[in-house]
Amino acid sequence: MASLWSTVLLWGAAYAIWRSYKIFTALKTFKQVPKLYCVVDPLSILGGFVVPRGWWNPGSYITWGKTDALYARRNSETIALIPIFVGDAMLLSSSPEASKDILNEPAVWLKPKRIMTLDLMGENVVTCNPPTWRKHRKIAAPAFDNQTFANVWEVVIRAYYQMIATSDWKSEGQVFFTSFNGVTTRLALLVIAACGFNIQIDWEKDKAATTNLIDETVVTVSSHLLERAFVPRWLFAVLPALKPIGKAYERFEKFLHDEIVAKKIELARDIKLDGAVSNTNKNVFGRFVAASEREAGQSLDTSQIAGNLFIFLFAGHETTAHSLVVTLAFLASYPEEQERILNHIHSVIGDSEPVYEHYSALVPVLHCFYEAIRLYPPGWLTMREPATDEALQAPHLTATGEDLVVPKGTVIVLDTIGACRNPRHFPNPDAFVPTRWAVSEDPAAPLPPSMDTFLAFSSGPRTCLGKKFASVEAVCFLTLLLRDWKVELKLEEGETVDDWHKRILYPKLEMTLITGDVPLLFTRRVKE
Ligand code: HEM
To answer: Cα of 441 to ligand 1 centre, how many Å?
Structure first.
């Protein structure tokens, strides 16, 4: 027994000396920036799930409502997080300029290994680094073009009319949803399934067994990514609660592989017939496989194509759904903004149905979406690490004003919440002001924020591939919904709009940022 104790003590002492050395080195390395001590690396599984949030865990500092004070109080837009017991020191920055410089050089500032957990069905454009990333991006980018966006518009219109034909919306003039999140989640799923994979799912669950199975599979796969990414695979075969998730993933992967093989055969047949690889598919899936086949010698294999298609499902579903529900929550909170947008919608579409050609004229609707994403960015952080020691320079980046030297392999967390509420770039940062995105006719008025330093869709060569996909979806849905329905909050007795926001919109920071259930009241507008 005594020898067990002495072994434990010996190992404990060795660990303590090693940790002290690591902490000492980190303090020396990051001398230009303020420090924040934490129990464990806040972005590790331990930091995220085991150590509860609180002052003892700086996970809570990267959380809601704290970031402005975090940086302002320390007079620095970068902070070093120093874990005492487990993990490596990392930097946290809300500097839009430094983020822009980092994101502009994807071959220098790499995505860290921990992001690779999203390689669930194969290597893909989101997770890999240059030079492999260039190959994925070159093939994926053409799949997101005007033909795809026009298809997104058509699919949203179809989904909207299916939605308002359901019993929920048929009641006398007013509809109250205790959680509108379910509605936007269904919309985003239908759109990504149809435009991404050519899977046509109806708004209401189909009675036919085959359609229902596809619907269930897509819903299960897209809503259990966190478990699939972090829970060991063998547990999906053992634990009853995880078995249906494991099965859905297997089904979906098989479905993707079968479809890819079928598409490749179809394309090969087309080449034989007219010598060209078809590019007439409206959905991302068909365009993606065709783009890959055109890259003779550089094409992606079946698992890489499946990996990319799967990641589009993840990237395009929850993000868009939550952004839409938050936009509606803000428009319900600011009736005068809603009225302004409604007048604009009428001025653009008149009495006709909105068509994709209206999209660019509906830019004030898009600005509401941008402003909601600025305040509640679904991609709430971005991580990078330099391939070699790198120096960064930006206003207020460090407390001393010196350059920030980031040693090779150090993770820098680009704090999107902090950057999107940075008062130097967004005056009155916590307020919902969609007009800040518009170019004013008054030459003396400030310019709208630059897209290069707006991090909600990231920026630079790796900017979100689905930015316009999501924007078209949002503008079309908001245009239809606001044209036909007035959206309002239902405040509790004595509650202010601010109180409602704190109660309802307080977000959870998981793989993406999501709010609590958003209750909204819709009143049918009377046609004049
Ligand atoms: C409101 C909706 C969306 C938001 C806020 C959003 C945000 C982001 C952000 C912040 C990134 C950068 C991630 C990083 O570098 O770590 C990103 C990348 C990406 N997004 Fe989106 N996204 C949205 C919708 C979509 C949609 C609809 C799709 C596809 C259908 C999509 C596909 C992608 C892809 C493929 C990348 C990786 C690009 C690359 O690394 O080259 N996103 N998105």
So the answer is: 32
Give, for ligand 1, the residue of 136, 420, 464 to mutate: max count of ligand atoms closer than 8 Å to Cβ. 464
Average pLDDT over residues 478-487: 97
How far the first Cα of the chain sits from its last, in Å, is 88
Task: Please report how the helices 243-274 and 302-333 are oriented relative to each other, as an axis angle in degrees rounded to 10.
Answer: 110
pLDDT reading at 279 higher than 80: no
**315 CA to middle of ligand 1, Å?**
6
Output the pLDDT for position 510.
Answer: 76
Binding residues for heme: 464
Listing DSSP states for 157-175 in one string gives HHHHHHHHTSGGG-SSSEE
**pLDDT at residue 284 above 80?**
yes
User: Sign of the C-alpha dihedral, residues 155, 156, 159, 165?
Assistant: negative
Q: What is the pTM of this model?
A: 0.92
Reported CATH class of domain 135-524: mainly alpha
Pairing of strands 109-110, 412-415: unpaired
* Per-residue tokens: 142: 């053409």
Binding annotation: 464
Task: Please tell me the distance between residue 320's alpha carbon and the centre of ligand 1 in angstroms.
Answer: 10
Question: Which strands sit side by side in the sheet containing 109-110, from one edge to the other?
Answer: 35-40, 78-86, 90-93, 412-415, 381-386, 109-110
Q: What ipTM did this prediction achieve?
A: 0.99
Q: What does the mean pLDDT of the chain come to?
A: 88
Q: Domain coordinates of the chain in residue numbers?
A: 135-524
Collapse the DSSP code of 372 into the 3-class scheme (helix H, G, I; strand E, B; otherwise coil) and give the result.
helix
Q: Are 487 and 520 in contact (CB under 8 A)?
A: yes
